[in-house]
Write a structure and sequence with these properties.
Helices cover 39% and strands 22% of the residues. The chain is α/β, with parallel strands linked by helices.
Amino acid sequence: MKTLIFFGATGNLFTQKIFPALSSLFYHYEIRDLALIALGRRFSKEGDYRRFLQKIHQREEKELLERVFYLPGDLENPEIPSKLSQLINKTGKEEAIFYLSLPPSLYNSALKTIEKTLSLSSPSTKKVALEKPFGSSEKDFEELEKALKKIFREEEIFYVDHYLGKATVQNLIILKAENLFIEKLLSRSFVKEVRIAVSEKEGVGERKKFYEETGAIKDVFQNHLLQLLTLLAIDIPPLCEEDRKECQRFLENVGQAKSHLLTEIQLPPPEAIYLGQYQNYQEEVENPHSQIETLVYLPLYISSERWQGVPFRMLTGKRMAERESFLEVVFHSHFPEDNLLRIEIQPEERIALLIRVKTPGMGLYSSPTRLNFTYSGSFGANTPEAYEKIIYDLLAGDRTLFPDSTFIRHAWQIVDRLASIIHKERIKPHLYPVDTLTPGDFWSSPPQITISRKTSHDYRE
């Protein structure tokens, strides 16, 4: 029996993403050797917590809910390790998987609790998974890694970036490895620029404290955007065959290439860095002096022969006009409409290629058209949700889709350099209107928005 112990089990991430993924694995993939221990402060009784989960999902999940055990209390409570070890012994000591769905500021408290718990309970195997951001700087990550390695071996640590579980993101590897012409086209000889965007329609919602600790740069740029950039930009070998050792070498080479590429990234001059904060953010987080960015746009450059001079335009923002995540490779073209490879992650996982074809008629005239691929259209079935894949691999002990510590350290080095520029140059976030901006507003130059705080207050009323 595998026992999953969730810290932060009453939070939005667990209730909206992780628990539905567990339910799917339990009922649709027949992974039944599971027990769940949920830690939280919101409820005092186990029955109340189970009814809370059932009410949210409005499905009959009796068999799974019967395997959910709830442990109320604060992490600072000295009785928690003893009670937790008793529950682990009750559910079976085959394997204990600790999952930290918490703000980074609570990681140390959670790890102390885990260390004490494991001193009282000795499962046959153990693992730990934790959600990004992994710390708040390179130094902070090194301290976190040190604390983790006091309890767990390297192979027992799983850093979770759920974007790597998305089918279209994984398909970046296949697209390049199994289609030699695309791998060759992705270079400065053919590419004018690359655009990578994670545009969110919602605001910070219930994540007020978390977001005040992180902001857009640490929440999305440091992980999602840099992961997408490296997967697109690395030199990639042909995909492995069925031989497992060969596959493992392939995946290790991909991981090493991603980490190395981060060392070649160059930041732009300060005037090219654009920070934004959406209207009413300060009121929403109840901090009238907050300078946390909810939007960041900047071009990055890679100092390699393959990508020299090609801008990688990076954007992420909240309260945008649409919810969409994508990569766009813009090729050199003879026409105003660029040839474009668009790899869309959400709202629908698709790949589209914009090319020019002959229009109907006698003359030799052309017009742009799209060649489209969607998973549902081509395979007639839904692909697993990102968290289904992430948790499936976590249970199996497969670390392929989990970033390693070297990648994370190099990513923090980039963010630390960026933070230093922002601090030194006193770059402050522009105020922008909600539900209005799109990534397309930024590709030529950031929009010139001037909104006063008074205007923001009036807009809300």
